Amino acid sequence: MTRRTSRLVRVLSSALAAGTLLATAACSDDGDKDGSRASGVTASPAARKQPTGSPTAPGSPTTTGSPTGGAALTESGAQTALITEADIEDDWTQVKDTEAENWHDSLLIGTVDVSDFLTAKADAADCQRLMDSLYDDDLLGKPSGANALRGFTQDDSRLLYQVASYDRSDPQDSLNWMAKLPDECDQFTMTENGEERTVQVIETSLPNVGDARAGLRVTVQGTTGGEQATLTLDVAAVRVGNDAITVTAGGLDGNEHDSVEQAVKLGTQRLKDVLAGKSPAASPSEIE
């Protein structure tokens, strides 16, 4: 990918006031890329992405241990493994599941500009898949087994937490794909209804939990309601055997990386306890 000067400085307060959000899911940082203009990759923002095996990236996600043994994840088990408000502390408030299921952010919609990439079709397709999967909340693909999610709000940020089984697919393929995105998609442009949006993707660190993990921060700068807005999303995925947790959090107010780290650390342990047939430990704020 060629270089360009950075234009960046869970979408909400100003976007909601302008009435332009489709709904919201929700994360800022930097990285640079440049290129000349050309035709784009066809976008399909409402289409669910089916992850296929991607070559392992040079910076593939950290792997520790072997897949956790134990019973298969059930629907009730997935629900039990979900984090609570106490697990992420701060001022997060849980919302109804039906509300969280419909969180989608209009700033994530667009057609990726192929001209931003040296290896245009391959890299641009991966970046398009990233934006589509963030919009659809299926970063690791469609779960093939049990699946449960929970949403939280805090001021103008939102956090979406998912526990799912991928026993008929391989979540490691998706983690390998995520690991190469900071290199392939560190900065690019996408277009929606004639308006350009600048996207930056960087790698973020996560607690050393689970069998493998990958973290990203995705920043989207664009126009909503006629005003400039910057959406910052912190994204994390952790594999435990053939099951995984995913967290997406952020908004217009800035990053929510600390909350994501907390959710990953305690959420992974909750999932491991459920798979081992144990009751998840009490959340930190529940312990006197």
TrEMBL record:
Instruction: Please give the PROSITE patterns that the UniProt record associates with this protein.
Output: PROKAR_LIPOPROTEIN
Its signal peptide is 1-25
Q: Where in the sequence does UniProt note compositional bias of the Low complexity kind?
A: 51-72
Species for this entry = Streptomyces machairae
Keywords in alphabetical order: Signal
What's the protein here called? Answer: Lipoprotein
What ranges does the record give for the region Disordered, renumbered to this chain? 26-73
